[in-house]
Amino acid sequence: MVGRNDPCPCGSGKKYKKCCESKQNDSIKEVKIEELERTLQYFYDHYPERKDMEAYTDLVNSWTKTIGDYLDLEMIEAIAMDEFFFHYKQEIWLGYLEKQKKIMVRPSTLSVLDQWNEPKVFVGKVKEVNEHHMTVSHILTNESILLRRESDKPVPVGVHVYCFILPDGSDKQNHYLAVSSLVFFPVDHQVVFDEIAKQFEKQVQLSAQDFLKEMGATLWKLLGQNGYEGGEYTNFEVGVLQVAIDFLEKNNREYGNFIEIVEDYLVEQQPNARKEVAIAAGAIRFGQENGLFEPFDMTIKEIAETFDVSTASLNKYYNDLTTYYKGK
User: What is the helix (H) or strand (E) element at residue 88, kind and residue range?
Assistant: First the structure.
């Protein structure tokens, strides 16, 4: 076994602690994370079992009666499944954990599974975002946690999230991962979360966890009544994208990843425009000049006139998008 002060086996001439020890530790962490991810994925691949399907279907049907006018069945099934496992039939999850503990050999992984006995529902507001985590504040208790990001997709400050959380295995305080569905709500729905917080403050019997459990489908019904349909974009952002898409489709243009770039720009940069068409016009010039679709035989002035915006407005958002794109 190599001591921390011994020469590093890689031949660099440095001490092991100054060279490859950290790389080995990083590899161990990666293996641990992958093992935990596999544990979660296997659970969702194999549960609920046939004997539990009737109870799960009953829950889905109950939720569909409440929120079926607002969300499609696929989304209702996804959010109801987490509720089923972690609020209604937690014994399924706990039984699965016990089986996994018997086959796990890595002590560090076993220690994490011991912390996974109580998945918690978490509804919070994003306060900060870095490369690997978001700082999220609970809407009822103001507790802040660091929630692991699941992808590189931009996450704007100010949106709300819904998920069930577990310790992420890093052994760091208040570091969590989303068990399954991590749902983002556009800033359009702040009023709903304010109302839920007011209702919680009016009562004294229930803890924050029990209150959110009692709210159940009611939370989603309130969101649906406020216009939520399962999307992650604000009405304004949807408007910008739709104007750009309609223009391209009307002119028979294949736009490839152009819309994805504009989506990320809207979410990450949160441009403060008065008109949707101003951003859409700037985006069309941006896409044309970066070869993201077949170019139009139109001047900048003609593009602006087509969208009924000034060339100054068009150029502002063209420049913003260009700066964003080059900085990625």
Answer: none
